[in-house]
Design goal:
Blueprint (H helix, E strand, L loop, with lengths): L2 H7 L2 H30 L5 H31 L2 H19 L5 H15 L2 H12 L5 H25 L2 H18 L7 H9 L15 H12 L2 H11 L2 H7 L8 H25 L4 H19 L6 H14 L3 H11 L5 H14 L1 H15 L1 H21 L16
């Protein structure tokens, strides 16, 4: 790596963006980690742990769906930094409040608020980094953001295994508030500043414009659909890994905290490699194709691990994390597919629509589980999500090296 490229990557916008994504991932996966102990503390047991767990996870994802639209529009109209400041403040305060709940209703409310806040971080960071860095450095920059960021899931797994679930929420909220102070030293995107001069705020961030053109809508839809396998893996296979382990007859118990730790450790490696490969191969599509196919193979291995040890199962979960390690790359693709006037809206909503897809994915899993059984139901839902992602990728345009300084013809 040349000295010029290294200095470009080590500027504050990249480093603070990576730390922001770190806190975002920590807070995002925290509920999956503390689902069982937190619900038991509130007086629930047995099947209620799964049913209430799905309900709360879905509420968080609905919050992220709404927040993605809110922050995306705000980011294109008022600026990338406004988006990041507002989202960090909201999810930090919400996670502090999550540590104080004593009823399912309060828990549900604050998971929605936390979801709204969490929705802005990744899309805002990727948009800002993509616009500040040169086209030669974009892939490396987003890979760095992703690699440091997804370690938040690993740290979340370690922290939640050592402290009380309420303390884990307090730690997440505290880290977010500290990050807010670091954000004060980050400058706004020059590309956005130019767009601000050329166009009025009313013409930027028009979310409905994504649906007024058939070509633009399908471009947007493909960006969402290629990410579906990621949240099938996290929302179903990892979140409910203790139940799957029991159904598979594994030797030894499986803890959700360790499952999250290993999947995000795999994500760390996958995000780093996918970002680097997209630069070396000069193609985003080829890399995403390889990772989706790898995910399909690792899902098959997950369900083929009956009777194996818990350690073997954690190894498969690590590989699943590696397979879905094109997460930041897929958000980068979305940012590169659209002009400056819609870029933050797209990058923020795409990532959160995929996260929001956890709701129909988990509901489909719940329905399939009731009719086919736990394992066959998950296999069917997983196969459908992988198939949809491959079909969406097939019709997508390559964006490696694309000039981003342009507006959408609206």
């Amino acid at each position: 790596m040349s000295r010029t490229l290294r200095s470009e990557l080590l500027q504050p916008v990249v480093i603070v963006g990576a730390l922001g994504y770190f806190v975002d991932i920590y807070d995002l996966v925290l509920f999956s980690i503390v689902r069982t102990p937190s619900l038991k503390s509130l007086g629930f047991s047995g099947p209620e742990l799964v049913d209430h767990g799905i309900h709360l996870l879905n509420l968080q994802m609905i919050g992220m769906l709404l927040g993605g639209i809110l922050w995306g529009i705000l980011g294109d109209r008022r600026g990338r930094l406004t988006l990041l400041f507002g989202s960090i403040l909201l999810y930090s305060l919400a996670n502090l409040a999550n540590g104080l709940v004593h009823s399912l209703g309060a828990y549900a409310f604050w998971r929605v608020v936390a979801g709204i806040g969490l929705a802005g971080e990744l899309g805002g960071s990727i948009t800002l980094v993509s616009e500040v860095l040169s086209r030669q450095a974009r892939g490396y920059g987003t890979a760095l953001v992703a690699t440091i960021g997804v370690m938040g899931g690993v740290i979340g797994g370690l922290v939640a295994d050592k402290v009380d679930w309420r303390t884990a929420y307090f730690i997440g909220g505290g880290m977010g508030l500290l990050l807010l102070m670091l954000r004060l030293g980050v400058a706004e995107s020059g590309m956005f500043q130019q767009a601000k001069v050329k166009t009025s705020s009313a013409k930027r961030g028009r979310f409905l414009a994504l649906f007024t053109s058939r070509e633009r809508f399908f471009r947007y839809l493909r960006c969402i659909l290629i990410g579906l396998p990621s949240w099938f893996v996290i929302g179903v296979l990892v979140t409910f890994s203790p139940e799957f382990a029991q159904a598979l007859g594994l030797v030894g118990p499986v803890k959700a905290a360790y499952a999250v730790l290993f999947v995000y450790l795999g994500l760390t490696c996958g995000d780093l490699l996918s970002g680097l490969l997209s630069q070396w191969l000069r193609s985003r599509k080829k890399v995403v194709l390889g990772f989706i196919l790898a995910t399909a193979a690792f899902v098959a291995a997950y369900f083929g691990s009956a009777g194996r040890s818990a350690d073997f199962f954690y190894g498969i979960i690590f590989l699943l994390g590696f397979g879905i390690g094109y997460w930041a790359l897929f958000v980068t693709i979305a940012a590169e597919q659209f002009g400056t006037d819609l870029r933050a809206t797209v990058a923020t909503t795409v990532s959160n629509f995929v996260r929001g897809a956890t709701v129909p994915i988990t509901l489909a899993f719940q329905c399939a589980k009731n009719h086919l059984g736990l394992l066959p139901g998950a296999i069917v839902v997983g196969g459908v999500t992988v198939g949809i992602a491959l079909l969406a990728l097939w019709g997508m345009a390559e964006t490696y090296g694309k000039d981003l300084d342009y507006h959408e013809p609206i």
